[in-house]
Structure formats: structure tokens, C-alpha cells
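DM from R.C. (forwarded with permission)

"hey, sorry to bug you on a friday — could you get me a structure for this? deadline for the figure draft is monday and I only need the backbone to look sensible"
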Amino acid sequence: MTKFFLKFSGIALLLVIMIATGCQEDDPIVDPIGPDITLVSESGFVSSDVELLEGEAFSVKLSLEKGDNPLQTLSMTVDGVEPKGTELSGYVTSLTIDGTAQTAQNPQLITGTAKDGSTWEYELEPAGLTVDESATFAFRVTDESGLSASVSFKVTIVAPPGTPTSRTLEGILFNQAGPSGRGALDLDEGYGTGVTTPGTNANPADAEIRDLGLDCDVPAPGFNWRRQIGTMNGADMRQVDLTKVEGFTFDAVTTIEEIVGAYETGITFADGAAVSCSSGASTPVTDVTDELVIGDMFVVVRGEKYYLIRIDDIMETGTDNNDQYEISIKY
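My reply, with the result:
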């Protein structure tokens, strides 16, 4: 009986130990906390998908925070590819870390106090993107344990608002004192015509601008071409005032509204006259310019149509009065 009791007691004790041991909880497994990266939403900074004009710069502000381990690198990709070297410089125009300017690299090594958290500001350009094209820009921060986090946004290039220009062409306007039929210019087609006599492809009624011929006070064979133009057939002309339209160039203009804006802020001209040195007859001419130089830009208005013109070249040929202007036209 005693042996049975002892045997039973031993079994009971073993069961108690097993039960007690089985009820103890295992130590919890804690996952390491990785880094965090966010696009800061502030005025002047992109924090979500954005539409831009072709070549337009934009800025992003990134807030980097560490988790359990210090930060190590920050990389940028465009459509999944890391631009490097000269390709990277085509995208990144400036970079600051906590307000200090840095030389951009990719990936960017994080050092010093920035390893514990930092604010990064990139100024970027959508290199190579044209109208209706898009690309996804992404930034990834990685810590010393290899954990990472990322943010991304899409850049889409859109056409400028407004009415697109319909034509860009070239024309040649000759000295009005030269051969008949070439002293005026039809800006719609770039065709030369005379002030009173038809040209090969245009009539005087088609022309918006004309040359003023010779300065009769300068006797031949001297260079007596006035190098001045004016308007005709009810057209009006103003010179583009580059102090009023910042960054305005002939090639960059893509909308009629830009041309209208240059006209509204343009420099006006007084009327004048063209004089025939042989007969002495004087013909009134509206909107007579100063002596032209290469690069001058003007807006000519006739009816509802606005033309932007640029003087590309001025060629003086001597005593034959075949002097001429090469003119670019956009409308």
C-alpha cells in the first residue's frame, strides 16, 4: 500500500511539474522597427502626383526618421532606374540636407547627425519628358540593418494653357526702293509683295508690314537704306518689351495668349512717312520703327489675328537696293 501511494504521489508530482511548465509563456518575438520617409506637404513642394509644363522645375521636401537603427542611404529612382553621374545632374539642380547644400549623388550616403533623422530638399527637373509623357519619381531610405521605406509620386507633362499657335514660318522683306513688287510682306504666308504693285505670290492688300526705303539725306553710293519698317492695310505694330514679359523668347512662345500679352505690354510707335528720293513724294506710313537690329521682336495685329515677328538677319547689299531682312513669323 505504501509503495502504491508513493508511486501515485510521484506520478502526481510529475504531472504538476509538466502542467506548470507547459503554462509558462514564451518570450515575445519583437520585430525591429525600420526607418520612415514622408513627403512634406508645404507650399512650394510637391507631395503628390503633379502636372508640370515641359522643362518646369519643381521641389520636394523629405522627412527621414530612423527606427531601431541609424539611417544609412537615400536613393532616387525615375521609373525604377537610379540616375547617376551626368544623368543625375539632368534631374537634380540642387540638394540641401537640414539646410546645408550638398553635392547630389545616388544613392546618397547619410552621415553624421543626419543618421538619426533629417530633412532633405531636392530641386528637380523632369529631364527628357515632353508633353503627355509621365514618369514616377521614388525615394527610398535604408538603415544600417537593411530595412527600408519609400515614397513616390508621378510627374506628367502637360501643354501650356491657352490657344496653341498654328504656324511658324519665314519671310524675306526687301528694301522698298529695290525691285518692284518686294517692299512689303504678307505675314500669313511669308510672301513678298510691293507696296502698290503685286508680288509673285501676293498682292499689296495682303501685306501687313512694309519697308520705308531710303534716307534721301544720304546721297548714293553711300549706305542710305533706312532699315525701318511700318504697317499697312490697317495693321498695328508694337515692339516686344522684354522688361515686361520675363523670359520671353520667340522660340519658347507656344500660345496666342503669350503673343497677345506681349502686344498689350509692348512699346508703341508714332506714324511717319516714306519718301521717294527721285520724285520727292511722301507716303504716310503707320507705326514706323526705329532703325532695326538683329533680334528685334514685334507683334503685328490685323483684325483679330496676332503675329509675332523676329528680325533674324539684316543684309545690306550695296548700291542695287536688294537689301533685305530675314524675318521669322509665328501666329
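R.C.: lifesaver. Residues 1-8, 13-17 have pLDDT under 50 and may be disordered.
me: no worries. The longest strand covers residues 305-315.
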